[in-house]
Design a protein that fits this description.
This protein has helices at about 15-30, 55-60, 75-90, 110-120, 140-160, 170-175, 190, 220-230, 235-265, 270-305, 310-320, and strands spanning about 5-15, 45-50, 65-70, 95-100, 130-135, 165-170, 200-205. The protein is α/β, with parallel strands linked by helices. Strand 1, helix 1 and strand 2 (about 45-50) form a beta-alpha-beta unit.
């Protein structure tokens, strides 16, 4: 007899066990209220990002449905999630449902049924990712302004917009087969949307924290923004390659124009033309050098992007072709 589908909730916690307890209390009845998951007992995995210093996390041992993972040092909420998922990968079955979210209340439990609907409505959703798309934030004015600037810069560099966080749901197949991808060592949230999986967005407004204040300051926000860009290196390299190629082409056209005027017309060429040609030549060399560097970055990044995923595609195709109708 096949074991019932298990629902795993993976959440990083840093000195905020009270918030996790409130989150757990709200999630349990929500799982029980989904007809397709009737009788399923959720399992909670807490990544104690205090590296075992938070004594309150030890008290979670009274709950048989809760596992506490203690990294050797503080990882930050993104890397802590990846650490916890990889640690639990041997216990999570491929057909289990995995939900990642923050424990502070900003990822609202009430959105869970809508996140799970795309996963439990049909037979096979092993390659499907469901991600919460943020529609509203409760932040200060200065944070909102900086966030809009970041989104503009992000879109300019990558050609896409990221408006999602850690709140996501998918099958255990992704944990066992995809979470080892090196992009997840850079940034969990943006890696989810770069790997070409079957991606679904569910609009969700960001909730209000259960207690305390966010530890995210401007320095950490900027560092998080840089990490979010890293999985998009291939796209950034291509767009920058196009820009530097245009600079080189314009420099070449400018050089030919000045030389043409100098050699084939009687028009006087000012003395600064020599310096202009020199600057154009230097700019063109820099453009070529940057283009070569970016091409190398693109090749390396694209190689990482494809590493092993072709085999997964073939395996999924073979599995589907051998599955009885």
């Amino acid at each position: 007899m096949r074991a019932p589908t298990q629902v795993w909730f993976i959440t990083p916690v840093l000195w905020d066990i009270d918030s996790f307890l409130r989150l757990r209390t709200r999630l349990i009845p929500l799982v029980g209220g989904i007809p397709e998951l009737a009788g399923t007992r959720p399992c909670f995995v807490v990544i104690d990002d205090s590296a075992g210093l938070d004594q309150a996390a030890t008290g979670l041992g009274i709950f048989s449905d809760t596992t506490v993972i203690r990294p050797p040092f503080n990882l930050g909420h993104q890397r802590a999630l990846v650490y916890g998922l990889r640690t639990m990968s041997s216990r999570i079955r491929e057909d289990d449902i995995v939900v990642t979210l923050d424990a502070d209340g900003e990822d609202q439990p009430e959105d869970l049924p809508r996140l799970l609907t795309p996963l439990i409505g049909e037979d096979n959703h092993r390659r499907r990712l469901v991600v919460a798309w943020r529609t509203k934030r409760h932040e200060s004015l200065s944070f909102k302004i900086l966030y809009k600037i970041f989104r503009l810069l992000f879109r300019t560099a990558t050609g896409t917009v990221i408006n999602s966080g850690n709140y996501a749901a998918y099958r255990g197949w992704i944990v066992r087969n995809v979470l080892s991808h090196p992009y997840f060592d850079l940034c969990y949230s943006s890696s989810l949307v770069t790997l070409g999986m079957d991606l679904h967005y569910v609009p969700c407004s960001r909730g209000v924290r259960y207690a305390g204040r966010s530890r995210m300051n401007y320095f950490r926000l900027i560092m998080h923004g840089f990490r979010m860009l890293m999985p998009f290196l291939d796209r950034i390299a291509v767009r920058a390659l196009v820009v530097f190629s245009l600079i080189f082409a314009l420099a070449l056209v400018g050089t030919l124009a000045v030389l043409g005027v100098r050699l084939f017309t009687d028009l006087a060429v000012p003395g600064w033309a020599t310096y202009t040609l020199l600057l154009i030549f230097i700019a063109s060399l820099m453009a070529v050098a940057d283009a070569l560097i970016l091409f190398a970055v693109f090749v390396q990044s694209y190689g990482l992007l494809l590493r092993g995923l072709e085999w997964l595609d073939d395996a999924a195709t073979r599995e589907a072709s051998h599955r009885p109708s």
